[in-house]
Amino acid sequence: MARLAAFDMDGTLLMPNHRIGEETLSTLKRLRERDITLTFATGRHVLEMRHLMGRFSLDAFLITGNGTRIHSQEGEVLHRSDLSPEIADLVLHSTWETRASMHVFNDSGWITGKEMPELLRAHVFSGFHYQLRDLRTIPAHEVTKICFCGDHDDLCRLRIQLNDVLGERAHLCFSAVDCLEILPVGCNKGSALGVLSGHLGMTLGDCMAFGDAMNDREMLGLVGRGVIMGNAMAQLKAELPHLPVIGHCQNQAVSHYLSHWLDTPHIPYSPE
């Protein structure tokens, strides 16, 4: 029996309209009744997740910013990791051949250089909003992570540029097909979940995790029970072919899978 359950948000717990379904919320509460600890492991900011937790009425640990922060159920910072000032300065002040927009995240929130209302659709439930600012004026020591949002093929070309310049001094990953993230070295959801499980006196073998994107790869590959969404990125499925694939987030597949796991674990699972 898993003792700790970790959930990605977008494309996993959340439906395509960026809201959580009632069946999913009910199932998460059933896990808590079984004394299974919950953690939400997401690229979203902790300020947004705290608001959502209040709406969900759930006690959960938070792994936010793709592993850059871990917070306790009471809001205490258990772990933090930021881009090195050298890398942040290099990314912010270099000229990149891309049409993608750049976004900076730190403890104050989400900062970008121009109005992009289409990006706010993913945050309609929480009301989380970016701050407008010239990104070049942000002190390099105040940068947690940097994201580029745009067309996937353009981002793939950008990733080659970033790899050539940054090398092994940063961790690059796709948190969605249209979002490329630059994170501190060694920073990912899997390493953060390892820190959290140790804090709780557990091992990663005691954990189950659900995800759909490449920023979930380390987490899903390290836990005792990793589960991939049916709507997951093809690259994630290809890199973790031994893991089970369940249904689509549109159909609240996490709830469907967990209900089976809780009620009829002796019967082989079949996606809805």
From TrEMBL:
PROSITE patterns registered for this protein in UniProt: COF_1, COF_2
Family indicated by similarity: Belongs to the HAD-like hydrolase superfamily. Cof family.
Swiss-Prot/TrEMBL keywords: Hydrolase, Magnesium, Metal-binding
Catalytic reactions on record: 4-amino-2-methyl-5-(diphosphooxymethyl)pyrimidine + H2O = 4-amino-2-methyl-5-(phosphooxymethyl)pyrimidine + phosphate + H(+)
A Pfam family per the record: Hydrolase_3
Matching CDD domains: HAD_Pase
EC class name: hydrolase
E.C. number(s) listed in UniProt: 3.6.1.-
Domain of life: Bacteria
Protein name listed in UniProt: HMP-PP phosphatase
Gene it is expressed from: cof
Residues annotated to bind Mg(2+): D8, D10, D212
Physiological role: Catalyzes the hydrolysis of 4-amino-2-methyl-5-hydroxymethylpyrimidine pyrophosphate (HMP-PP) to 4-amino-2-methyl-5-hydroxymethylpyrimidine phosphate (HMP-P).
Active-site residues, as the UniProt record annotates them: D8 (nucleophile)
Keyword Magnesium tagged: yes
